[in-house]
Amino acid sequence: MTEAHDGGQLPGQISLSGQSPIRPSAELAPVAEPEERDLEAALRPKTLDDFVGQERVRKQLALVLAASKIRGRSADHVLMSGPPGLGKTTLAMIIASEMNAPLRISSGPAIQHAGDLAAILSSLTEGEVLFLDEIHRMSRPAEEMLYMAMEDFRVDIIVGKGAGATAIPLELPPFTLVGATTRAGLLPGPLRDRFGFTGHLEFYSVAELELVLRRSAGMMDLKLTSAGFSEIAGRSRGTPRIANRLLRRVRDWALVHGVETIDARTASSALDMYEVDARGLDRLDRSVLEALVNKFNGGPVGLSTLAIAVGEEPETVETVAEPFLVREGLLGRTPRGRIAMPAAWVHLGLRMPANAVAAAMLPYNDDELDG
Ligand SMILES: Nc1ncnc2c1ncn2[C@@H]1O[C@H](COP(=O)(O)OP(=O)(O)OP(=O)(O)O)[C@@H](O)[C@H]1O
Ligand SMILES: [Mg+2]
């Protein structure tokens, strides 16, 4: 346990204080903490064969790469889209290594001026892979320069200002742009159209996450039973980043408790302590469901009322808790407010009363409740 702790908090302390706000748990955040980067880099698969799951994207990408090798040209530009932690950066690195090409890494937010991009583009070597993370956050002028670079391998460098400004055309060596975005919908059409191939990454199945975990456990020299792997996989919200993080937390627990082979009971004791439940819900997710079910008989109830009931800001409930609850079919959003889906009652170990089903169908005055 020489590595940095996530956020430096001891989860036990949070729950003991009793009145701390219900914060979303760091264990289940889909986005990586800065101190997590090195740990992640160590676990990244290096080849397409090593990359687990995403069968469709993997096959399509393999074809694009194989074809470009046969043609002896740099591969088409590739766009990777999908939620955080599913493997976009990993695939970008794999593309470079499969093409035996050097990799240059930058990101949308780092390119604020067209000049920033011109500097990168003009220093590319033939066949190089340029990875632009968060490509939807690039500035407009840089984006327009990128259009031309992608299509014609050429940029116009503007020298001087105002009436005296001249554009000096600059030829670029053929390169492969790999863009990554969590928000494909925010990409302007002309940019999207210039990618030869777009891979949409999907959430992983539990079986796929088990494979991710087996691979990671092997690299970390950990022993787990099959049931131990599936226990962790089931709580990982379809996201390899979260699976690897939970594996590290379980490893810590096993280390401290002197457990050598991690079975389902060890994994579940460890993750219960971090308040990650059997379905990957954290404390905030659960209190939203519990309020909905216990205080409002399953709803419908307005967002602001629900937020008050759990002592949170409506925005936190809406952006942090709801997307996963909706995806899991535990919570429904209706024009009349939020409702608990039948699976919510099951998950909380309760029976859905008949009138809760009926209540979800009744006209309901949301404003009156909220006021
Ligand atoms: N298919 C996979 N097989 C094995 N490990 C994976 C896979 N996908 C992702 N991982 C692991 O999950 C972690 C996060 O992956 P990655 O950084 O590629 O996600 P990302 O999509 O780029 O996320 P973000 O949107 O936050 O940048 C890495 O440590 C990587 O090793
Ligand atoms: Mg990434």
TrEMBL record:
<feature type="binding site">
    <location>
        <position position="44"/>
    </location>
    <ligand>
        <name>ATP</name>
    </ligand>
</feature>
<feature type="region of interest" description="Disordered">
    <location>
        <begin position="1"/>
        <end position="37"/>
    </location>
</feature>
<feature type="binding site">
    <location>
        <position position="90"/>
    </location>
    <ligand>
        <name>ATP</name>
    </ligand>
</feature>
<dbReference type="InterPro" id="IPR027417">
    <property type="entry name" value="P-loop_NTPase"/>
</dbReference>
<feature type="binding site">
    <location>
        <position position="89"/>
    </location>
    <ligand>
        <name>ATP</name>
    </ligand>
</feature>
<feature type="region of interest" description="Large ATPase domain (RuvB-L)">
    <location>
        <begin position="24"/>
        <end position="204"/>
    </location>
</feature>
<dbReference type="InterPro" id="IPR041445">
    <property type="entry name" value="AAA_lid_4"/>
</dbReference>
<dbReference type="Pfam" id="PF17864">
    <property type="entry name" value="AAA_lid_4"/>
</dbReference>
<feature type="binding site">
    <location>
        <position position="241"/>
    </location>
    <ligand>
        <name>ATP</name>
    </ligand>
</feature>
<keyword id="KW-0227">DNA damage</keyword>
<feature type="region of interest" description="Head domain (RuvB-H)">
    <location>
        <begin position="278"/>
        <end position="371"/>
    </location>
</feature>
<feature type="binding site">
    <location>
        <position position="204"/>
    </location>
    <ligand>
        <name>ATP</name>
    </ligand>
</feature>
<keyword id="KW-0378">Hydrolase</keyword>
<feature type="binding site">
    <location>
        <position position="88"/>
    </location>
    <ligand>
        <name>ATP</name>
    </ligand>
</feature>
<keyword id="KW-0347">Helicase</keyword>
<keyword id="KW-0233">DNA recombination</keyword>
<keyword id="KW-0234">DNA repair</keyword>
<dbReference type="InterPro" id="IPR036388">
    <property type="entry name" value="WH-like_DNA-bd_sf"/>
</dbReference>
<keyword id="KW-0963">Cytoplasm</keyword>
<protein>
    <recommendedName>
        <fullName>Holliday junction branch migration complex subunit RuvB</fullName>
        <ecNumber>3.6.4.-</ecNumber>
    </recommendedName>
</protein>
<feature type="domain" description="AAA+ ATPase">
    <location>
        <begin position="74"/>
        <end position="207"/>
    </location>
</feature>
<feature type="region of interest" description="Small ATPAse domain (RuvB-S)">
    <location>
        <begin position="205"/>
        <end position="275"/>
    </location>
</feature>
<feature type="binding site">
    <location>
        <begin position="151"/>
        <end position="153"/>
    </location>
    <ligand>
        <name>ATP</name>
    </ligand>
</feature>
<feature type="binding site">
    <location>
        <position position="85"/>
    </location>
    <ligand>
        <name>ATP</name>
    </ligand>
</feature>
<feature type="compositionally biased region" description="Polar residues">
    <location>
        <begin position="12"/>
        <end position="22"/>
    </location>
</feature>
<dbReference type="InterPro" id="IPR004605">
    <property type="entry name" value="DNA_helicase_Holl-junc_RuvB"/>
</dbReference>
<comment type="function">
    <text>The RuvA-RuvB-RuvC complex processes Holliday junction (HJ) DNA during genetic recombination and DNA repair, while the RuvA-RuvB complex plays an important role in the rescue of blocked DNA replication forks via replication fork reversal (RFR). RuvA specifically binds to HJ cruciform DNA, conferring on it an open structure. The RuvB hexamer acts as an ATP-dependent pump, pulling dsDNA into and through the RuvAB complex. RuvB forms 2 homohexamers on either side of HJ DNA bound by 1 or 2 RuvA tetramers; 4 subunits per hexamer contact DNA at a time.</text>
</comment>
<dbReference type="InterPro" id="IPR003593">
    <property type="entry name" value="AAA+_ATPase"/>
</dbReference>
<dbReference type="InterPro" id="IPR008823">
    <property type="entry name" value="RuvB_wg_C"/>
</dbReference>
<feature type="binding site">
    <location>
        <position position="89"/>
    </location>
    <ligand>
        <name>Mg(2+)</name>
    </ligand>
</feature>
<feature type="binding site">
    <location>
        <position position="43"/>
    </location>
    <ligand>
        <name>ATP</name>
    </ligand>
</feature>
<comment type="similarity">
    <text>Belongs to the RuvB family.</text>
</comment>
<dbReference type="InterPro" id="IPR036390">
    <property type="entry name" value="WH_DNA-bd_sf"/>
</dbReference>
<dbReference type="GO" id="GO:0016787">
    <property type="term" value="F:hydrolase activity"/>
</dbReference>
<feature type="binding site">
    <location>
        <position position="194"/>
    </location>
    <ligand>
        <name>ATP</name>
    </ligand>
</feature>
<feature type="binding site">
    <location>
        <position position="333"/>
    </location>
    <ligand>
        <name>DNA</name>
    </ligand>
</feature>
<keyword id="KW-0547">Nucleotide-binding</keyword>
<dbReference type="Pfam" id="PF05491">
    <property type="entry name" value="WHD_RuvB"/>
</dbReference>
<dbReference type="Pfam" id="PF05496">
    <property type="entry name" value="RuvB_N"/>
</dbReference>
<keyword id="KW-0067">ATP-binding</keyword>
<comment type="subunit">
    <text>Homohexamer. Forms an RuvA(8)-RuvB(12)-Holliday junction (HJ) complex. HJ DNA is sandwiched between 2 RuvA tetramers; dsDNA enters through RuvA and exits via RuvB. An RuvB hexamer assembles on each DNA strand where it exits the tetramer. Each RuvB hexamer is contacted by two RuvA subunits (via domain III) on 2 adjacent RuvB subunits; this complex drives branch migration. In the full resolvosome a probable DNA-RuvA(4)-RuvB(12)-RuvC(2) complex forms which resolves the HJ.</text>
</comment>
<dbReference type="InterPro" id="IPR008824">
    <property type="entry name" value="RuvB-like_N"/>
</dbReference>
